[in-house]
Design brief:
By secondary structure, the protein is an alpha+beta fold. The chain has a domain at 3-10 and 23-76 and 121-199: NADH Oxidase, CATH 3.40.109. Helix content is 41%, strand content 13%. The protein contains eight helices and four strands, in the order H-H-E-H-H-H-E-H-E-H-E-H. Helix 2 crosses helix 6 (140-159). It is globular, with a radius of gyration of 18 Å. The structure holds flavin mononucleotide. Flavin mononucleotide is lined by residues 11-12, 14, 95, 120, 165-169, 191, 209.
Length: 224
């Protein structure tokens, strides 16, 4: 598969087969993703991979934490800005509605939608969960570099027939995760990722997000 094919083929998968992954496979993916670039070559990433009982433990932790505190622990780094302007608001709405249409969950069935959101905390059934940890001192540049690492990992996974879903939803329990993983005071969990084999029978995995055209986001100057 070429890089351009991979870029178009990678999607967020939200239903996984109950099929375990060897740690050697996860290790190999990280070994490839570490070649992602970063400003000043800071490589501002640390990864915690969980499977089996360790995966179940973080799932339980998230469900219990959010039951006690539904507002969550995203703190100063919420998943989205408090006020999401256009065109972002419409894009977010559309992907959500497209997904719930595939799931057959109407807008008014709020309990069912919340139950679906809670599937994030079971990694949508994936056998492996990854957490991306960053130094709290890092700024927006280093978060972008961590994103490059994550995309590299997602592409490497896809190349091997694996599927991923990046999950900022784990930021909702970042303080509990911090304690759980006994991270140092200068570290924080940015994002999670579900990793495993896609369930080909799941309707939600037929979701295809659209993108703005190049003309909508690019400006070309000085060309002949
Ligand atoms: C950093 C990041 C965090 C994300 N967090 C979540 C999440 O918590 N839950 C979820 O279902 N999807 C999550 N997504 C998936 C996006 O909704 C998805 O990438 C977007 O709709 C485009 O679809 P595609 O990945 O299938 O191309 C996240 C994506 C990124 C890049």
């Amino acid at each position: 598969m070429t890089v351009s094919e991979l870029l178009k083929a990678r999607i967020s998968v939200r239903a996984f087969l109950d099929q375990s992954l060897a740690v050697s496979v996860v290790h190999a993916l990280l070994d490839e993703a570490r070649w992602a670039p970063s400003g000043g070559n800071l490589q501002p990433w640390k990864v915690i991979a969980v499977a089996g009982a360790a995966r179940d433990a973080v799932s339980r932790l998230a469900i219990e934490t959010l039951a006690e505190n539904p507002a969550g622990e995203a703190g100063a780094r919420p998943v989205y800005p408090a006020s999401l302007g256009e065109p972002y608001r419409t894009r977010r709405y559309k992907i959500g509605e497209d997904m719930y249409a595939l799931l057959g969950i109407p807008r008014e069935d709020r309990p069912a939608r919340l139950q679906w959101v809670a599937r994030n905390y079971q990694f949508f059934g994936a056998p492996v969960g990854l957490f991306f940890v960053i130094d709290r001192a890092m700024g927006h540049g280093q978060y972008a570099h961590l994103g490059m690492f994550m995309q590299s990992l997602a592409l490497a996974a896809h190349e091997r027939g694996l599927a991923t879903c990046m999950q900022e939803s784990w930021g909702m329990v970042r303080e509990s995760l911090h304690t759980h993983f006994t991270l140092s005071p200068n570290e924080t969990v940015y994002c999670g990722m579900a990793l495993g084999y896609a369930d080909p029978a799941a309707a939600v995995n037929t979701l295809r997000s659209d993108r703005a055209t190049v003309e909508e986001f690019a400006i070309f100057q000085g060309f002949e």
